[in-house]
Write a structure and sequence with these properties.
Strand content of chain A: 15-25%
Number of helices of chain A: 5
CATH topology of the largest domain in chain B: Aspartate Aminotransferase, domain 2
Strand content of chain B: 15-25%
Structural class of chain B: alpha/beta
CATH architecture of chain A: Alpha-Beta Complex
Oligomer: heterodimer
Largest sheet of chain B: 7 strands, mixed
Number of strands of chain B: 17
Largest interface: A-B, 20 and 18 residues
CATH class of the largest domain in chain B: Alpha Beta
Shape of chain A: globular
Number of helices of chain B: 14
Radius of gyration of chain B: 22 Å
Chain lengths: ~130, ~400
């Protein structure tokens, strides 16, 4: 609990390195967290051999949702899409380095749901994507 | 008479709770649901220990007792809101179900394609979505009384909308986000002059203000027990007797019938016509105890206390740099302070306040369109009830300074 607002999270929230949009992009997807209205869009550029060459996120929300989006985007640049597809809840918790209760977990996982829905070409960022 | 807060706080055992070692609960979320006094908890406990039986048609002692308790609570609720008769007090699950009852029974029998229903921009989702659903099914038209920059309804626009001969006007008596107390009696009168039926969402007003059904003259009035010291799972739809009598039943089943044949039924008289199936008996009895508790304190005293706390809270909040409080000034609102803190998301504000035991709500508070109107995704909301103190407002203010420091 006391780690929830670790320096690194506040820092990524206030000064994100990967906030923005990519135009052109190969994949773009956005969705909301209906509980609190957090909104995340993720744009990707992907090479012909399936490597993420660049990525950005945009949107608004709490420190947890925005910091996790920034950390997530940072972590996938240079990775193959096949590896991105394997990311799950634990990957996000490892990136954040904190434990989260069920409500805030939804904030933290929004970016991963959006990312995977985009990569899989789905219409909706469902909860099943991060299990 | 001013409320004796020391005594009142003893009535609410949960307010003694330590959430973590040395961290006492500061409950500022009564707009979502109020805490319950011992008298309510005990009334429900006593019922299950001593009197539990299903109501109506039983002839054994317990069935008679439980029926008398269930109906006795209805009588006291009717008196509390000054309804002409307890027959006009229909038990539902909550305000949402009360509004849906009107939408399913009255509206589906009376509204056709193109008929106009007037709502407002400050409605809770419970007074928007049932009408969206009817619009999709029936093709009714919806229009909205706008909210001004200072959080009031624009009554000039309302009058213009009324010239389009609406069939129904439905609005909240008190906003759950802005705290605005709308001029309900005047709005009902104007609706009637235009030939419309008036439905009032009283979820936030009945817990905090003295309401008088006969003076207000609304055709329908909806509220919930759990926001007024009572249990969850029970609410009321008040309606004018002639209207309720003219309406088809809502849910079908036991208790709402006079007679059932294999191929037909005759509906029961009021209020039972709208109460199908075994109801929330213990909850109705708890609701009765809640109304007794509020009556004992006096609703004028409750309102005066909340006004004093709200005025103090708004003054203290507004002196914090970066805080913006939404809604009108204290004289036009109930005990609600929804605010934003510059550069910090409401979710983070609520989470950090929780460390000090301060319970506030963060989000759009089931009023997403209202937040869109003000161009914000969410607010933090502190709300005050009869058991809150100025010391708790001070704890909130100190907590907000801590949040600012953390995000420095």
């Amino acid at each position: 609990m006391d780690d929830l607002y670790r320096e690194v999270i506040i820092e990524h929230y206030k000064n994100p390195s990967y906030r923005g949009k990519l135009d052109p992009h190969d994949i773009s997807f956005a969705d909301n967290n209906p509980l609190c209205g957090d909104h995340i869009q993720i744009d990707l550029r992907v090479s012909t051999d399936g490597i993420v060459t660049d990525a950005r996120f945009d949107g608004h929300g709490c420190a947890i949702s925005q910091a996790s989006a920034d950390l997530l985007v940072e972590s996938i640049i240079g990775k193959p899409l096949e590896e991105v597809k394997k990311l799950n809840k634990q990957s996000i918790l490892d990136l954040l380095g904190i434990e989260l209760g069920p409500v805030r977990l939804k904030c933290a996982l929004l970016s991963l749901k959006v990312l995977k829905a985009g990569v899989y070409g789905l219409g909706e960022a469902g909860d099943d994507l991060v299990e | 008479m001013t409320l004796n807060l020391t005594e009142i706080r003893k009535d609410f055992p949960i307010l003694e709770r330590e959430l973590r070692a040395g961290v006492r609960l500061t409950y500022l979320d009564s707009t979502a649901t109020s805490q319950k006094p011992l008298s309510v908890i005990q009334a429900m406990d006593d019922f299950y220990r001593k009197s539990n039986a299903n109501i109506h048609r039983g002839v054994h002692t317990l069935a008679e007792e439980s029926t008398a308790m269930y109906e006795g609570a209805r009588e006291r609720i009717a008196t509390f809101i000054n309804a002409a008769s307890a027959r006009q007090v229909i038990y539902t699950r909550n305000t949402t179900e009360s509004i849906n009852l009107v939408a399913y029974s009255w509206a589906r029998a009376n509204l056709k394609q193109g008929d106009l229903v007037i709502l407002t921009e400050m409605e809770h989702h419970s007074n928007l979505v049932p009408w969206h659903m009817l619009q999709a099914e029936r093709g009714i038209e919806l229009d909205f009384i706008p909210v001004t920059e200072d959080g009031l309804l624009d009554l000039d626009v309302y009058k213009t909308l009324l010239s389009r001969s609406p069939k129904l006007v439905s609005f909240s008596h008190m906003s759950n986000v802005l705290g605005t107390i709308n001029p309900a009696a005047e709005m009902v009168r104007l609706a009637h002059e235009a030939g419309a039926i008036a439905l009032v969402d009283g979820a936030q007003s009945v817990p905090h203000l003295k309401v008088d059904m006969q003076a207000l003259d609304a055709d329908f009035y909806a509220f919930s027990a759990h926001k007024m010291c009572g249990p969850t799972g029970i609410g009321v739809l008040y309606g004018k007797a002639a209207l309720l009598e003219s309406m088809p039943p809502f849910l079908g089943g036991g208790d709402m019938i006079k007679e059932v044949k294999l191929r037909s039924f005759r509906a029961n008289s009021l209020p039972h016509k709208f109460e199908a199936g075994t109801p929330a008996i213990a909850e109705a009895i708890g609701f009765g105890a809640a109304v007794d508790y509020l009556t004992h304190l006096g609703m004028d005293n409750v309102a005066a206390h909340e006004h004093e706390i709200t005025e103090y809270a708004l003054d203290r909040l507004e002196e914090i740099p970066g805080v913006k409080v939404f809604g009108p000034s204290a004289d036009k609102k109930g005990g609600v302070a929804s605010f934003t803190l510059e550069g910090i998301h409401p979710h983070d504000v609520a989470q950090i306040l929780d460390r000090d035991g301060i319970a506030v709500r963060a989000g759009h508070h089931c009023a997403q369109p209202l937040h869109e109107k003000f161009g914000i995704p969410a607010t933090s909301r502190a709300s005050f009830y009869l058991y809150n103190t100025k010391e708790e407002v001070d704890l909130l203010v100190n907590g907000i300074y801590k949040v600012k420091k953390m995000f420095g």
